[in-house]
Every structure is written in structure tokens, then in C-alpha cells.
Amino acid sequence: MGNAFACMPRKEHRGAAAVSRSKRMGSARSARGGPKLTPAEEELLHRQALAMAIHQHLDSGGSMSRRIDAGASLSRRMAPGSTSSRRRGDLPDSVTNAKPAQIVLENLETKKIVLVHGEGFGAWCWYKTISHLEEAGLEPVALDLTGSGIDHTNTNSIATLGDYSKPLIDYLDKLPEDEKVILVGHSCGGACVSYALEHCPKKISKAVFLTATMVKDGQRPFDVFSEELRSADVFLQESQFLVYGNGKDKPPTGLMFDKQQIKGLYFNQTPSKDMALAAVSMRPIPLAPIMEKLSLTPEKYGTVRRYFIQTLDDHMLSPDAQEKLVRENPPDVIFKIKGSDHCPFFSKPQSLNKILLEIAQIQAPAALLPGKASSEETVAEKS
């Protein structure tokens, strides 16, 4: 823990040069058998790519804080889903696009929001979200899960969901006894959030599943994608995306999509500069954590309020699959973002920020009734 990305001075890089270097040195190349980068070279590459994206964001009128706290180190193409009716009266679809009310920080249960990335990503993917949350006076922390971002653990050695989630659990364990956080998990990072809810429920105020694998007890994260990727058995026998880090005669250890597949699945609405950042920063996906069944209990997992954010132009986890998730494991409140792909932190950052601010301001009810979910829904239309 303690790794942090810092913005580089503008004169130390040029966008085209950074992209050129990334093509020669990218971690994806080393994953396919090219020259292996040293840890220092790989960390420098990630910093350069992130700095390029940040400064382009600034040049286009965005804003960015000086430091990103990184506290530790496919699908068939579905048409956008239709928005179902909300249960808050006749509010317009763009209700969350209204200028948010001033946050009274003293009234929040917690100001700390821990951002947990999805498969292949790292703390770097949250750079826009961190900027927005910090401007609102909150305290975002973005973690690198094991083998992700600039954590140099070999992804082929990650054998369990516990191994993969260790940086998150370590972070929660070290919090002061009376401090709680809001957890936000993206995609398969939702499994890590669920794992944390079961192991550290007293440290978590709320859990937010961002187009994420919000599984039931006894379910595997992979099962969420099974209808679109075929059954696990067939996938493990036939998939061309598998990585055999321990040899072809051993079980597969990871997944690696090529650039065009990643673009179609994850980034169909994402700006090109963020796709460039992802192209040089994404890592192979450890397979064991998404194939592991979770054990979740009402006494631990069931005591924390859960919120789900749906993305309605998502090609990786289709709107239909997301609807099935929330039907089978109902959260307290459902939010929806129109026009967002699988990565709203890139494609709809302002809409995502407004929803996270709204969730942060939701107060705990006087009495939490087990098994009761409000199933409220609200929709964000534009970033």
C-alpha cells in the first residue's frame, strides 16, 4: 500500500511521444511474450500514460487535483436498455443531472470513498472520479488489487479471491475502529466488494456496485457473464482468450482480450484518450478469483446497504444481465446512467459523480429492517 500516481509536469511528456513509447513498451506486449519490463520501467510507463490523459482532460476544460491517492498498490452487442419506471413520483429522467445541492460534509456518515477497479484495470482508471469527488470535499481512495495497476504480482500466481482482494482487506483492517467507508466496485471488482462485506462489514457504511458482479451466496462472479460467454466448462475448453501461465498442460490462469475486443466490449462510448490510457495500462485478468464461489451470510454481507448503478449502453454486461442481477439480489436503491458503456468513469464521469454524491448523502434509516429493499430507481441521462 502507499503507491500513488502523481501528475507529471507538462514539459516532461508529449501526447504523441507517450503513445509511441507505450506501443513499444506496453504491458500487453510483455504479456504476449515480448521483452519483459522492469518494475521501474512499467511504473514509469503507467505514470506517463496517466499524466498524458490528465493533461488532455485539463486542456479540454476539465479539472484535476494535484494527486491521486492510490492507497494500495464478449458479450453480444445489445441495444441500450429501456429505463423502467422509478418509484420517486414523477421525477424527470434527468433528475440527477440537476445541479446537486450543496453537500453538508458534517452530515455525512463518512467522507471516505474507496474505489475498487474491475478486471484488468487499476487505480489509474478512477482519475476523473477522484477529481470530481475531491472537489466536492470527499476523500476518495483508489486501490490496486493484487496483480493490477502498478502492483507487480504475477497474475498467474493469484489462486483465490482472497489473494486478489488482499489490498482491499488490508486497507479496511487498518482503519480506526470507529471509521467506516463507502465501497464502490466496478465490474468484477464487485466480487471483491462482496468479499469485503462478508469479512469486514463493520468497516463499511455502504456498498456501491457499478455495473458489477453483485452475486448471491454460492454464486461465482463468472456466472454473471455465463449467458453471454457460454457456460464455464465450455468457456474454459474453447476460449481463445485464455492465458496458460503455468503451461498448456496445466489449467488456465488468466484472460487477455486483444485491443479491438476490449474496445468493443468496454469502451463503445469512451473518449479516445481514455482508450489510449487503457491500452497501455490494462493487465491480464486472473482467472481463479472470478471462478470462485462466494460464501455470503445475512449476518455479515446482509447488514450493509447496497446500491447498484446500471449502465444502459453496456456491451460487456448487457442491460438485460444487469436487470437480472438486481432482480435476483435486490439492492436498496437502483440508479441508471443513459448512454454509458461499461466504464462510466470514462464515458459519463459527471453522471457517475452525481450519483455517488447522492449515495454519500443518503442517511441510514432509524431501524434497518432485514430483507427489505426499497428498489428505488433514478436515471442519469447526460454527463
Automatic annotation (TrEMBL):
UniProt KW Flavoprotein keyword:
no
GO MF annotations in UniProt? methyl indole-3-acetate esterase activity; methyl jasmonate esterase activity; methyl salicylate esterase activity
Pfam families tied to this protein: Abhydrolase_6
Instruction: Name all AB hydrolase-1 domain ranges.
Output: 113-351
- Which first-to-last residue range defines the signal peptide? none
Q: Which UniProt keywords apply?
A: Hydrolase
Location of the region described as Disordered in the Swiss-Prot/TrEMBL record: 1-37, 73-95
InterPro entries (UniProt xref): AB_hydrolase_1, AB_hydrolase_fold, MES/HNL
Q: Does the keyword Amino-acid biosynthesis apply?
A: no
**Any one of the GO BP annotations:** salicylic acid metabolic process
This protein is called what? AB hydrolase-1 domain-containing protein
Query: To which species is this protein native?
Result: Panicum virgatum (Blackwell switchgrass)
